[in-house]
Every structure is written in structure tokens, then in C-alpha cells.
Fold each of these.
Amino acid sequence: MVNAVLSNAVQYADSKQLDLKLLFHHHNENVEQYRNGIEKATEKVVQFLSERQAPFSGITPEELKPLFDGISLEETPLSLDETLEELQAVYLDHAVAFHLPKYAAHLNCPVVIPSLIAEQILSAINSSLDTWDQSAGGTLIEQKIIEWTAERIGFLSGDGVFTSGGSQSNLMATLLMRDHFMHTKLKHNVTFKGLPNGLSSPKIFCSEHSHFSLKKSASLLGLGEDAVIGVPTDQYFRMDIGVLEELIKREVEQGNHPIGIVATAGTTDYGSIDPIPEMAQIACKYDIWLHVDAAVGGGLLLSDRYRYLIDGIELADSVTVDYHKTYFQTVSCSAFVVKRPETLHLISYHADYLNPKEQRDTGIPNQVDKSLQTTRRFDALKVWTTLRMMGRMQLGHYYDKTLELTKAAAALIEAHPSFELLNPPVLHSLVFRFKIDGFDNEDWGHINLQIRKALLRCGSAVIAGTKNNGDTYLKFTVLNPMATEADFEKILALIEAKGKMILFEQA
Ligand SMILES: Cc1ncc(COP(=O)(O)O)c(C=O)c1O
């Protein structure tokens, strides 16, 4: 079998007189081909941006899949034009357009031009940020962006690393919490020996509305999901501090070990911000790690007007910041930042071929010493280019605009007789439902679920949904500073029309 494949490959190479110069952009005869390819690809994007009217085509997986069935990846290769044409059909015609003002579903932001320029450079040069000898200035750029982020947080001499996203940053936080506790309190080298036998359960406390990546991390780290205790929230979806302390005491009484607290600065569904200063006091009292998951609220670090909303973040031991959510950056672009650089040594690994131990004290900066990944994209370049071309203040104004638009959209929902708003506007998320008086026996959860399905099928607006106490609600995530109040009026009118149609059809 293997021989047959190899012989086919050889025959193919012979028949095509395989020319290695053909598709590498570094060959000096290919400069025009490279430029032409990038220009044509850019044209496709420009067409997508200028011609697309609705955020989604409404296509279903059943409708799109047959197009893939007819494609064999073993076929003779296509030309650039043919490849782009095929891509138009299988992807671009139906890709969800985050830049359109009627996209208000998940935590996807429209992206700024400097980020796209940087993508072009970072993918073409293809530096890998694990070691100095694969990146040189790239490593220093990443370190400078981390330093800047740490300063905005209020860490005097923080450190950190870029990650693939908020989930990986939260995994790093959970890992450090676990290892810091084991090393300092139990004098147990968990890195080498694994979890100690007979250990009473380590416990991590976070709001019941915190992101599911924390439970996933606890499970991956051998602590079990059970280690994550969801603390109830107040009427504004912020952690109830009184209950937090009660739960910590209860665990201590049961012989368990509290190892960390996670404050969410911007919950995924409600945009609520936990009371960070009070949580920091409790973390200090019990001498445990405080992590702030600012995957969403990290954008406040840009804002002069609203930065106060995360006062106290500087008291954390570590912070998650997702530039790909609120800094208008392309995916992926995120960071994990710590207050004390030495805590990152807990997760350092060395390989002779890559970052030998003896290099550690020579001043050669190898970011892999601090990362869960080895080969790693140069995502920091996007934040760098954005800050250099726009400046922090302009980026901050864009960010402020999204907060102000969220407030305006909330006011529209509140004033509308057909809608009920569940949460006050804090950051970008608004949870609400279609509900009108005089239909007391209706299953509003079901009707709102149907509305969301109908809206996705028509594609003229894309919104999200979630559940509160088991009931389905609708959700706006407002991250487009170019959207307007009028866009939200139109989306609400669409939702109302769909809601009334469903209501009267089932009457
Ligand atoms: C509060 C919060 N933390 C973490 C994450 C995970 O981020 P990512 O999707 O970049 O892994 C999210 C994603 O929505 C989030 O809302």
C-alpha cells in the first residue's frame, strides 16, 4: 500500500517535472506570483466586505455539505483563480460577517487595518515565538506588549506570554494556582511527581457565571470539575462576596484546600464585573491565588473613561486579556500576565535542542520558558502595529463607543413594550426576551428559541441566545463601534416581527 502511494507520488512528480521553485514565495522569480496571489485574495475580501448585505446567508450544514462531497483533495491541483472560485462557493458566500452592524451575537469584533497588515507580515515571515533564535526582534516585541499590558493593569514588574485565547490563558492560571499551592504550602513537587496521594480536594472559587474553560482546566489538571465551586451572584450577576467567604470556610472545615479565587471582569453572558477589591482582600486573608479573567473586560485597560470599572485588578496574581475580543484584533490574540515573573518558573521546561537550561541565566530570552505551546504564532505583532498606528487613546475611544452603544441598545430594549431586559448594561452583553402582555400562558422560552432559529435561517441579523434559570433568552453582544442605535432598532423590529409571527401561528 505504502509502496503504491510512493510510486504514484514519484510518477506524479515525474509527469509534472515537479518544480520546487513553483510556489515558494522566497524564490526571486516568484515575487510577482506572490504579489498577485495576495492581491487577488485581498480582492476577494474586498468583494466580501463591499457586496455582503446580511451577516449570514442562512445556510444549514445539510445544504452546504454536498458541496464538499464533490471535492477530492487527491485531484490534480487547481489554479489560483479556480481555488478562489471554489472557496467562494464553499466558504465566502456563507461566512458569517462580523463587520456588519446587524451581527451582534458572540464575542467577535470587527478588525482594524493595522491588525490585518501585521497578519500579512507575521504569516509571510513566519517567525516562531518559542525561542530567540527563531524570532529575534519578534520576542522583544512580544515582551514589550506584555510589559505594556502589565503596566496598564498596574503590575510594577509583571511578565507573561501570548496565548491562543482566553481558554488557554485560564488554563495557565489554573495550572499556576495548583502548582503554586503544591510547591509553597505542601512542599510537594507536583510538576515532577503529579498529584499527591490522599490529598484532600483543592478548591477554586469563581462566580457561577464564570467561563466554562475554568472547569475544563480543572478537569485537565487532574483536579476534577468538582474542584471549581460556582459562587452565587447578586441581582446584577456579580459574585456575592458574603457567600464566597462562607463557602471558603465550609471547605476549610471539611478539610479541603482553597487554592485560588477567580474574579471575572466581564462575564460572557451578562458582562458583569465581580467585586475585584473585595475578592482580593479575601484571597489575601486566606493566602491564596487571585486570578482575574478579563478576557472580556480587558478592553477597559484601553479606556480613560471606564478604566475605573476594573479598579483592583492590580491586586491580582494573574490576569487573562483577550485582544481578539475587545482590541479589534484578528483571532488569535490573547495574553496571560502575572504580577510576579518568578511564578512562571513553575511551568518552565527545558530541552537541549531548544532552550537549554544553561541559557536561562545568560539573558537570552526564550518565551517558550513561560508557555504551554512550543511553536507559536507572532500574534503580538498585531497589537504592536495597532498601537503604533492608532495609539492607545484612539483604540480606547473605539472601545468606549461599544460600551456607549451597549447602553443605548439597553435603553431601546427597556423602552420597548415587546421586550424584557434581564441585566443592566455594564460591558457588551445584553440578555433579553420577546414577551408581550396578554399572553399569560405562553412558553416564552420556547418562543424565543424559535425566534433565534428563524433569525439565523433568514440571516438578516445574527444574535445569540443563552439560558437563565432554564429559560431561553436572546443575547446581544455589542462590539462593533461602527454600528448605530438605528441598527439596533432595526434588529429589534426584526425580532419583534418574528416573535409575533410565531405567537400568532401557534395560536
Ligand atoms: C469570560 C471569558 N473567559 C474566557 C473565554 C475564552 O476565550 P477564548 O474563546 O478566546 O478561548 C471567554 C470566551 O468567550 C470568556 O467570555
Amino acid sequence: MTARKAGLVADLLPRLRPDLSRPAPDDLRTLFACPLQEVWLEIGFGGGEHLLWQRARTPKSALIGCEPFLNGVASLLGGIDDHGIETIRIHDGDARDLIAWLPAGSIARVFILFPDPWPKKRQAKRRLITPQLVRSLMRVLRSGGELRFASDDMDYAREALRVIGNDAAFAWTANRADDWRRRPADWPETRYERKALSEGRKPAYLCFRRL
Ligand SMILES: C[S@@+](CC[C@H](N)C(=O)[O-])C[C@H]1O[C@@H](n2cnc3c(N)ncnc32)[C@H](O)[C@@H]1O
């Protein structure tokens, strides 16, 4: 890590980290100094490229990113500092702790893009998507909110479709048979996705509506 990034981890990160030791505010938007329409959540943002892209296009939405990998957090901090961004908060730990802290119905969109695939059968229980996680997302997503999931591991994508699609609180929004093969226009390519494509793996893109 460069000295600049280490400095941002020491000085900027503590100012952007939600304090989970206190109750969350009833209106999550009050975490931010400027007026905002809604708050979005990204789980496992890697280096934060998708999060910064969404922020640049939707300045009226705030974003909370979760990522335990410190070098990734430091990369996002670099982007936040470069552009003087005030509408991003970072939980540098397990997303499940943050989700448990969030008020019901406080989030308008959730992004889970290329979560670690854990492709071996004996590793599958380490996967992030479980019925418990989906239930906790159901609680924090507002009605009409969106959940986006992508994976280059077809077994994981099928499992996510089954677990999320079987939850009565979510509806898969696909209109055409091959929708899952197409990344929507307001969804940029991520770093992990680029790697998967360069290695010949075609991702699945799944969008769900919170009913
Ligand atoms: C395969 S990478 C994908 C990163 C990024 N979304 C992309 O598409 O380039 C998965 C990321 O999820 C993060 N991750 C794993 N478990 C997590 C958890 N429980 N909460 C939040 N992030 C997690 C990992 O640290 C890793 O950076």
C-alpha cells in the first residue's frame, strides 16, 4: 500500500465508517451532510470501481460499500479523496454485520457483484448468498427496491436464482429468456468480471425486485 493510501486508511476511513456500536439513525440519509433521495448498498465492492461509477451517475443517491479487503478499501478511499466525494460510507468488515444494523426499508438498491464463488463442493457453505442473508436483505430493502447479483460461476448463479427467486418477497425481473446474459446499461463492467471474461467465463446477471 502506498503512503498516501495508508494515510487515507488512518485519517479518512474513520470518518466514513458507520458506527455500528450505536443504533442506526431512523433516516439513514442523515448519515450524510447533503440532501439525498435514497441510499444504495454494495456488498464486496473489491476496489470500488462500480461504486464510484454509480455515484458519478446518480449524485442524489448515497452509497454504503462493504469490503473487508483493506487494499480494496484503500483504492476506494483514493477515489473518494480524488473527487472530494461526500456521499459514500464504508464498512470495512463483514457485510452481514452492517445489514443487521441497518433500519428496515432503508435501502433502495443492493449490489452483490461477483461474490467469491467458492466453486468446490465442500466450500459451497462459505458462499454469501443463503436464505438467511436473503431474509436480512428483504428486511432492509424498501418495497420496490432492487437487488442485483452477478456471478461467472453458473452453479452459484443457479443457486442464487433458486434461493432469491424462491423467497416470496422477491421477483426476478427478467423479461426475455436471455436477459440473464445481458448486463443492463446502468451497470458497468467490474474488475472481477473483466478477468472472468478474459478467461472465457460468461457471467450471469440477475435483477430482482423487492415486492
Ligand atoms: C470476487 S471479489 C469481486 C469484487 C468486485 N465486486 C468485482 O466484481 O470486481 C469478491 C469480494 O467480496 C468481498 N467479500 C467476501 N466476503 C464478504 C463479506 N462477508 N462482506 C463483504 N464483502 C465480502 C471480498 O473481499 C472480495 O473483495
